[in-house]
Amino acid sequence: MKKEEKQQHDFIFHKKNYLFMFIGLAVIALGFILMSGGGSNDPNVFDESIFDFQRIRLAPTLVLIGFAIEVYAILLNPNKKK
Description:
α1 (15-35) packs antiparallel against α2. By secondary structure, the chain is mainly alpha-helical. Helix content is 54%, strand content 0%. Keywords: Membrane, Transmembrane, Transmembrane helix.
């Protein structure tokens, strides 16, 4: 006789972890979208828009915040009792 063993497939992460991961990915994607553009169609014409606040300060900050959210999502333990 073989005993049927119940196999449990436990995921490493829970729903809350995945939620924060998707939020982090969205923030990172938004940062890269804001960082894009600002070029000139004519290579002989310089366009000052590549040095505006959005591309120099805001977008890289959003990317770093997104990576911080990803680290938090990985380290988050939803089963931890307070």
